[in-house]
Write a structure and sequence with these properties.
- This protein is of the alpha+beta class.
- It has 14 helices and 24 strands.
- The strands form seven sheets. A five-stranded parallel beta sheet has the order 3-2-1-4-5, sandwiched between helices.
- The protein is globular and about 55 Å long.
- It starts with a strand and ends with a helix.
Length: 417
């Protein structure tokens, strides 16, 4: 099977790494890729948002499967352009990807499908914003209706900060605060059959102890030893399948990866948000535990044959990912700094720990930082404590001037397991 992956972050590196280990994959390509992905896939310089260019590349490569990684190309209709060429593609149409591209649309779908979620208001005027903030009170939860690269959500006790964020958005969703721990659950679907993966938990705040500004994610772990063993079945029944069924009923079938961000509240499971693609950094830990070859699973979703796909197989162990971010992230990051120690991780920690590139570029023999979240270090082990120890040992070998990372990823779960 010839596979083309679209994107160039740690999520796409994780996908490419898993696909490169799949014996059914005979050729692996990525566009545009990054310095790390270049080690496992052939890179192609193409604009990931240009559907016609991506479709043309897929046709030229005679790809058997195209995997669209990031949300922006999906919302822009890149998957549609590839499908129009008759090439199987893993990723929803632009209309179905509105589930992530518009939080207001997602709320409408959830209401129609009776999916449990937070009460909310969609606001477009200062008066509506003030009324909504007053109705819910603190903590205030304010979400930009559109895509914001994981940084469009503000949760704050400060009404002035909440109002300022809301006013900066063209349209905003203001909702009640959901208590309880958060869980990420992915599901692969062909528009009818829904196959849940294993749950993970990520860490959105920039600093230890869940302090600091919201980010795209600073680390993750899986499995969740504290979660109810029936959680996946419950979410499948009450969230994932009803959402897929409702989108199909509307004539916009969702095929690809449905990501449910969940809060386990005192009143039960509630959906925080939906994404239309694999999440970063949860993908890194979920794929690290998946034993089923990835290409066949994604191809089954792309070709509408998930109903006959064998049950997924998982390792018994755990995985932990720690994100190394550049100076000043999530503000304007400093880029162009050399990254040292990558070879040391490869020589001394692999295969139990490895580096997945996100914001990197190659300059001759050197690898330089080229974004906010620069690297993800992922490690596996028989349990969370072992995986965590291996991940941080590998992190300690990497040198990037001014970089930052959280030191408490999976610490509480490992201690209580």
């Amino acid at each position: 099977m010839k596979v083309l992956v679209i994107g160039g972050g740690a999520r796409e590196h994780a996908l490419c790494r898993s696909l490169s280990l799949d014996p059914d994959v005979t050729a692996l390509h990525c566009a545009p890729g990054n310095a790390g992905i270049a080690e496992v896939a052939e890179l192609h310089g193409v604009d990931a948002l240009d559907g016609a260019a991506v479709a043309e590349l897929a046709a030229r490569l005679e790809a058997d499967l195209v995997v669209v990684g990031p949300e922006a190309p999906l919302v822009a209709g890149v998957a549609d352009a590839v499908r129009d060429r008759g090439i199987p593609v893993f990723g929803p149409s632009a209309r179905a990807a509105r589930l992530e591209g518009s939080k207001a649309f997602a709320k409408d779908v959830m209401a129609a499908a009776a999916v449990p979620t937070a009460r909310s208001y969609v606001c477009t005027t200062p008066e509506e914003i003030d009324e909504a903030l007053d109705a819910f009170g603190a903590p205030y939860v304010v979400k930009d209706d559109g895509l914001a690269a994981g940084k469009g959500v503000v949760v704050t006790e400060d009404v002035a900060a909440a109002r300022a964020h809301a006013l900066a958005c063209d349209r905003v969703v203001i909702e009640e605060f959901l208590d309880g721990p958060e869980v990420s659950l992915f599901a692969v679907t062909d528009g009818e059959t829904v196959v849940p993966l294993q749950p993970a938990q990520d860490f959105k705040r920039a600093h230890d102890g869940d302090e600091g500004p919201n980010t795209g994610g600073m680390g993750a772990y899986s499995p969740l030893p504290w979660a109810d063993p029936k959680l996946v079945d419950e979410v499948h029944k009450t969230v994932l399948q009803p959402t897929v069924d409702e989108l199909r009923r509307r004539g916009t079938p969702f095929s690809g990866l449905l990501y449910a961000g969940l809060a386990i509240t005192s009143r039960g499971v509630r959906v925080i948000e939906f994404n239309a693609r694999f999440g970063d950094p949860e993908t890194q830990v979920v794929l690290a535990r998946l034993k089923t070859p990835l290409a066949g699973l994604l191809h089954a979703a792309a070709t509408g044959t998930l109903a006959t796909f064998p049950p997924l197989r998982w390792t018994d162990g755990a995985a932990v990912t720690v994100v190394i971010a550049s100076h000043n992230y999530p503000g304007t990051p400093r880029t162009g700094d050399p990254i040292e120690g990558l070879a040391d991780v490869a020589e001394q920690d692999a295969p139990e720990a490895y580096v997945l590139h996100a914001g990197t570029r190659r300059d001759g023999a050197a690898v330089l930082s080229a974004g906010g979240r620069v690297l993800s270090v992922t490690a596996t082990g028989v349990d969370l404590a072992t995986a965590r120890e291996r991940a941080y040992r590998a992190v300690g070998r990497i040198s990037l001037d001014g970089s930052q990372h959280r030191t408490d990823i999976a610490a509480k779960a490992a201690a209580e397991a």
